[in-house]
């Protein structure tokens, strides 16, 4: 049943993506006289209907089965098997693709030792082991017992042995450790923290200055299982909830891409920075554990009760720790011991690429990507996306092979390697091909995961891509419905009121680096979108994908010190330019005008995101160049550099911090003005 | 007589530039059927001949007279008068230009105080003034007596009062001060140095760590007057040689652009760095003086004789200084006193812009620029260039006005302000419009100075622009000749043997930041050229425009430590891509193919320089992003980052310096690979 609904979701995403790929990017020309017709390759509705009719759920299911036969963590034999499977599919002359190939990079990954697993124990003063956390998750199906399943670990966390009294540090934010530090001496302690609130690596980076020697991290049922204190009867395989032994693996560095070759493609001979210079890696041992084990530790802690917003779903009061366990506990006076054996090594990671050349504008690329590596079997993350991508290439390829259709622009497919270690495959690809991609890529579409039943579309995108998604989503019916469109269903779950268009689906922001869109939008400024099917947020409060909606608030404070007038002027000129370009598009008689006019206007649209790229904006944030969508620490969604700087200045009140805020105001103003120049009619 | 030959040079440059502006950028299409003909706008030879015939020497002369009526140092009333003159010319509806406007920036300039001139004196122990250097140059014509003539000074040099024993420090290089420091205690001394060998500001920056408290700088007759020890009968106005009181003014910062707003356009409200953070400004007082005064000081110095290569053209032995003067001198025991009153202020600097819109590709810009500000009257630098630019706009404008002709691509003219203070006008323009210019500029042509009689063309350019200059220079006759082309004349003076083309004129490199081409090629990666008419180098050894010719030498050393194989591979793939693109161009039947094909190939060519731009390549060199043409300190012409790093590693032998060299090898390799991707046929 679950599987059936899932497959509905897959098919829905496949037809939506087909619509986007062959649909409207920028403006199209009308279709006579003949030479204009040859150039225009207009998308007609019947063509889209034909494509949609050909999406085959059984084929997607078969793709998924093949892709998830064995665990395929990045660079393992299981991963290489998926590389070969994709290559076989795409290089088959019946595939219709014009070419497919592999791109290999030599990247630095971090793994636990198979023969010496990382351990977390409670040890008495006499060194008796009183408790041992599960080394591996409990298997509920035979394939989960595969010896290739990697134990939960913190990739890029250092090897080391730490032992100390336990404290509970909420989410491991700086403010969490500061609060603890007011009443406790944290030096020599082990902190247990829950996921959320701070980046994975940051939980250890924030801890170290307080003298904390090791960190345990787990997922609280409050954050992931809707607060159910979730015994095995309530969780997977009985529901979609996380079981007690489930532990989130992950990359614990702060930058994306191969950590030893920032800004450079990781080829065999490429210069590599020393391992100790990896940016944002945890300085102290850190290990993820299941919430079953976390409960066994946290509910035994002594000390005062933690504040209300630190409490989770365990049936006990979360105390700070004495430090250490309470006197009534069997662990009284015992310490937590953390033994981590992670080690880094250079490994071969592969992207599999496929291409269908455009008939009219082969040098304009619409790109579609999905990572291939998983932490374990990856049925959902990422193979659901890969299965859909394979079905899309099958359908488009068949049409190309038949000789009846070819896209106007080139379509490039990317199956990225080593995403789970920090978007490594896509980032290395971006670094290697930045010149060409900056010059030619019209847009990048990322499909990572298609999740959960009762699905609705979830889309994050550059604003310029919003209409492309709206148009495509209106052409496809929602899962299981013959009358409700994906658009209407989406509108029901995620919506907002636009001053111009009224109630429309809420397209999210591409902030952060959650998936492979990051190198495209942040590093290269290429218009991007990230698509998935997701769960009903009205029925769950699972902690992912928080929305941000309070841009500009901080300007009330900044205006005391800095004149925001030039920013307002820049925004105004940008608005005028955009409105004017819209008029040009709608008043143009492209039928009788030079075909270069359509190209020119399309170029203006294509390059709009590029105008917001400023390599000087964030000198300390690797690969973040987009002044609107870069990552931030403050809670404000837009203008991250400015928001962070203003927040800091508000906190410190220092003149030099206000100067930095002023600098970011100038950077943002200049970028918006540049974008306005890009959109302004070219005769200006 | 001199004037007449000069004007021949001007006219030659005007017709050459016209040829380039309306001539071949990239490939053109053939001219039937009609729709292709409409798009192609082919340049026919007769059109070029017609343009050439219309160049009017008398009009250039009149332009020059108007432009040089008064001194027009940047932002002074004289400068504003030239702004208004250019605007009047270009905005006149009879001009034929489609539009002309001013762009104002608020920039930080540095001036001496009019009522308190900077002074250089020799002061006895009893404070008697024994000698005073001339505050202003001697006037030989009435206009040189204009009170607006600014006294010689070091722009951005600090105000201050320094007094100490004099030493002669050759060119003020680090190695010069080191040599002096071996036998002398430099602390508390004043150093006198000659121009050349090190940047202007560097002469003071290098001095300060040795305890030197002030610097005098002059131009030795050896370096500028062919070694003649040049009394007033031999120099201007009797010849083109520099008179004894002539002193070179200049900007003494190391970066270009407004020094307070790096990377940001200097608008009214733009964030400004603190003045004390200006990069590369002299830390101690420094003042230029004439060589007449320099002789009076140097020939009195005590101490040992300086080495042969420190000797100049004065009729005495150049000694190091005791420190101070020799015992037999009337200045014995006296000190040199340097009183500098320079002060910085925010001033309004103006670029004047003019445009002729392209008929077919209005969103592709061919740009032509020349700075407008001078240190004094600027008859040669820059008004010779401005006079030529005005004649070019007159000729093109008349054709546009007649309705008979319009260029295929847009031509933008820029009359830059405040170049003498560090390319400020062009750099601020680049910072403000980088998005649009990066996307649309096909090429930038810079014409700063047209110098001296017996002129030959001197051209520095991106290699991709070489053929454009060759083609245009073959269509124009050399000054005063009816049979020898500019090309043939040029070939006589500057030539090299190309392995492919045999003997051809030697096109120089656009390294460094000598004029307004720097923001275009270095900061934005736009194909650029710098044109002028220059003197016969076989007859003079004046110190400007040194050539560099020893690329790759240092690889012998690097290969001991680093495998250069990937670089060779990248160069090979670049060569193959270039050769292949050449084949595509020559085998294409553009007549019967889509017009977008020509556009696509032109885009590949246009974006080639952009592919070499890497914002991460030189984190400590403001605005230098082009990995081939950036500035360097080592003597090797190409791959500046790599050459500097290898030279440093060779000197120190340190492992970390070789690691840095390896990093630059990777950066260069990646850039060349990226350029190859740009040129590779788009179906690959």
From TrEMBL, chains A, B:
Peptidase M28 domain boundaries: 351-559
UniProt keyword list: Cell membrane, Membrane, Signal-anchor, Transmembrane, Transmembrane helix
Keyword match Transmembrane: yes
Boundaries of every PA domain copy: 163-249
Principal localisation: membrane
Membrane topology, record value: Single-pass type II membrane protein
Entry-linked Pfam families: PA, Peptidase_M28, TFR_dimer
Domain spans labelled Transferrin receptor-like dimerisation: 563-679
GO CC terms, sorted: plasma membrane
Signal peptide: none
Homology family: Belongs to the peptidase M28 family. M28B subfamily.
PANTHER family (alphabetical): AMINOPEPTIDASE NAALADL1, N-ACETYLATED-ALPHA-LINKED ACIDIC DIPEPTIDASE
Assembly and binders: Homodimer.
Protein name (Swiss-Prot/TrEMBL): N-acetylated alpha-linked acidic dipeptidase like 1
Organism: Astyanax mexicanus (Blind cave fish)
Source taxonomy: Eukaryota, Metazoa, Chordata, Craniata, Vertebrata
């Amino acid at each position: 049943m679950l599987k059936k609904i899932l497959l509905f979701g897959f098919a829905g995403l496949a037809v939506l993506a087909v619509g986007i790929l062959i649909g409207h990017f920028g403006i199209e020309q009308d279709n006579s006289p003949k030479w204009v017709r040859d150039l225009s390759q207009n998308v007609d509705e019947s063509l889209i209907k034909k494509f949609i009719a050909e999406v085959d759920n059984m084929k997607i299911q078969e793709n998924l089965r093949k892709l998830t036969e064995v665990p395929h963590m990045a660079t393992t034999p299981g991963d290489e098997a998926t590389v070969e499977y994709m290559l076989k599919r795409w290089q088959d002359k019946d595939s219709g693709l014009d070419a497919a190939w592999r791109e290999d990079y030599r990247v630095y990954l971090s793994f636990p030792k198979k023969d010496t697993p990382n351990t977390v124990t409670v040890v008495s003063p006499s060194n008796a082991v009183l408790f041992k956390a599960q080394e591996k998750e409990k298997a509920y199906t035979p394939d989960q017992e595969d010896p290739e399943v990697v134990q939960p670990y913190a990739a890029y966390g250092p090897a080391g042995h730490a032992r100390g009294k336990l404290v509970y540090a909420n989410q491991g934010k700086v403010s969490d450790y500061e609060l603890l530090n007011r009443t406790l001496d944290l030096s020599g302690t082990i902190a247990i923290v829950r996921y959320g609130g701070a980046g994975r690596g940051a939980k250890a980076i924030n801890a170290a200055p307080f003298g904390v020697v090791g960190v345990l991290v787990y997922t609280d049922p409050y954050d992931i299982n809707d607060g159910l204190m979730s015994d095995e009867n309530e969780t997977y395989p009985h529901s979609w909830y996380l079981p007690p032994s489930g532990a989130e693996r992950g990359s614990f560095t702060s930058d994306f891409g191969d950590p030893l070759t920032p800004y450079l493609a990781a080829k065999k001979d490429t210069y590599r920075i020393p391992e100790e210079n990896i940016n944002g890696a945890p300085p102290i041992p850190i290990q993820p554990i299941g919430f079953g084990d976390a409960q066994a530790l946290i509910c035994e802690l002594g000390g005062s009760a933690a504040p209300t917003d630190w409490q989770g779903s365990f049936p006990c009061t979360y105390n700070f720790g004495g430090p250490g366990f309470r006197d009534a506990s069997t662990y009284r006076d015992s310490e937590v011991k953390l033994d981590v054996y992670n080690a880094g090594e250079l490994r071969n990671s592969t992207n599999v690429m496929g291409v269908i050349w455009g008939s009219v504008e082969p040098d304009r690329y619409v790109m579609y990507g999905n990572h291939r590596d998983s932490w374990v079997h990856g049925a959902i993350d990422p193979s659901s996306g890969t299965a859909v991508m394979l079905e899309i290439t099958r359908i488009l390829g068949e049409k190309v092979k038949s000789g009846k259709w070819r896209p106007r622009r080139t379509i490039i497919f990317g199956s990225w390697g080593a995403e789970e270690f920090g978007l490594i495959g896509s980032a290395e690809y971006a670094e290697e091909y930045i010149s060409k991609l900056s010059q030619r890529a019209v847009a990048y579409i990322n499909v990572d995961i298609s999740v959960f039943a009762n699905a609705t579309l979830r889309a994050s995108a550059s604003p310029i891509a919003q209409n492309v998604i709206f148009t495509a989503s209106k052409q496809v019916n929602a899962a299981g419905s013959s009358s409700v469109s994906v658009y209407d269903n989406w509108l029901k779950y995620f919506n907002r009121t636009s001053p111009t268009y009224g109630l429309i689906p809420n397209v999210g922001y591409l902030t952060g680096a959650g998936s492979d869109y990051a190198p495209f939008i942040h590093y290269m400024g290429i218009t991007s979108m990230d698509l998935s099917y997701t769960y009903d947020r009205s029925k769950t409060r699972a902690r992912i994908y928080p929305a941000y909606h309070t841009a500009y608030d901080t300007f009330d404070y900044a205006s005391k010190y800095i004149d925001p007038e030039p920013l307002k002027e820049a925004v105004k000129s940008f608005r005028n330019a955009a409105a004017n370009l819209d008029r040009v598009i709608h008043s143009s008689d492209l039928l009788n005008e030079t075909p270069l006019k359509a190209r020119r206007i399309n170029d203006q649209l294509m390059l709009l995101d590029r105008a917001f790229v400023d390599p000087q904006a964030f000198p300390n944030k690797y690969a973040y160049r987009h002044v609107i969508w870069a990552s931030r620490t403050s809670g404000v969604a837009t203008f991250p550099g400015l928001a962070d700087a203003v927040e800091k200045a508000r906190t410190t009140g220092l003149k030099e911090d206000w100067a930095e805020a002023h600098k970011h105001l100038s950077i943002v103003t200049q970028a918006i003005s540049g974008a306005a120049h890009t959109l302004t009619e070219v005769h200006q």
